[in-house]
């Protein structure tokens, strides 16, 4: 294939936007999941959640590392994670939702995993080799995240009356935050055109199918697609993100320039 | 090890001649360095002591997630965050091996949890101290895991097979933990004056509680003598504490830190350090539930367990439904 390398042809700003969005999703969800450490309902879950958080933090390092390179201002993954303010973060609102009970945490994970899985699967075929390589590694991890969260959603949905109720409530609470995953903008369109990323809209059908299958098996009812909250992908967040960042960034902010 | 002052139910140590033939055969196997396995005969006191010791150790791993978990969301870099997550995950894994080892002695994890939550079972006093700064995460790896290793290395040779094998795995991971703790501190003492001050402050607070981890002097303890005869314990508390101090003081010097003990001096004759005594009154207070974090630690564990009841019940109910459905499908097929 003797085509021009997309690295040279696609819009840098659009590429940076995509990398920040993908890295920030992993960072913020990894942060939320790690809040459970030592507090989960059963020891095996403490181990499994730490594992999920660890995968997500590892992915953050790769995506934000590449974002730093593409951005061309000498910023590292740590600079991007620790020294940006909330309006510069590009994660989905879904991943900054508070953990709630363990059922809500698992439901958030499942709704995100199903989308993340499809995104990474498509990114493995990206025309940008660097993106394809990260996706290759992350996809293996996320395929397992999805297997696990899907399985737990089903078992709890079809468990006791109480576990069913909690899962149904979690679903209702989180559903309005799922629409944002599938709404593209001009920068998505430019990258999709160049074959660098899939368009967000193109992931919807696959996601609907994964979710519908799991919910049916879980005996849970899919909420109606009503109003969908948006904003995270363009830096307009919920109040929760500020608190995440004040914790996450505390040391870097309190001791500027120190190395750790 | 994170077990302190484990009782044995013995009032005095008996000689081989005083034992009946079955117990004598057991003791002779232990003396010969053979491993005792779960299905084999063992004295009831041996079984109970092991359950106490292993469960105390397991509970310590589980409660030990809390002080370190306290800094995961605030770790200063992505790499430090990943390392700390992996470390705390290891601690949970250690808890899991140890509860499994205890299960081979006929006690379930749920029963042991019940003992922890009711306050009947203990865990190491060290986890009742707070982690106040990032340097505390380094200090825990360096000092707390360092003290644990000192105790656990001999336990790899414990007479009880499942415990011994669990300890072999655990020790490998603990030495990685200790290195990561020391590495955190190395980076900080080479950093700004504020970072260095933070490290010294952490050492000031963690030094004495780390020495307390070995427990009070047990040279005169019948429980300790019995545990040694059973090869559940290999060294006295004072021996291990001495070894720990001898190993750690040069490391503190290398970091450019001052060990907060005015009595600390090198004793050429014994080839080790002379050092002061920890405040044993504080130790007994922490053991009795009056440490700075006892109430929070226990409450966090109880809350995790109670809030998670619906989750565990849900999974159990689902498993039962699936079994019923399989049975019904089998009948329908016949």
UniProtKB/TrEMBL annotation, chain A:
InterPro entries: Aromatic_CoA_ox/epox (IPR052703), Ferritin-like (IPR012347), Ferritin-like_SF (IPR009078), PaaA_PaaC (IPR007814), PaaC (IPR011882). It holds the Pfam family PaaA_PaaC. Gene3D superfamilies: 1.20.1260.10. Its EC number is 1.14.13.149. It comes from the Bacteria. The keyword Oxidoreductase applies. It is an enzyme of class 1 (oxidoreductase). Keywords: Oxidoreductase. GO terms for molecular function: phenylacetyl-CoA 1,2-epoxidase activity. This is 1,2-phenylacetyl-CoA epoxidase subunit PaaC. The lineage of its organism: Bacteria, Pseudomonadati, Pseudomonadota, Alphaproteobacteria, Hyphomicrobiales.
UniProtKB/TrEMBL annotation, chain B:
InterPro entries: Aromatic_CoA_ox/epox, Ferritin-like, Ferritin-like_SF, PaaA, PaaA_PaaC. SUPFAM superfamilies: Ferritin-like. Pfam families: PaaA_PaaC. It comes from the Bacteria. This is 1,2-phenylacetyl-CoA epoxidase subunit PaaA.
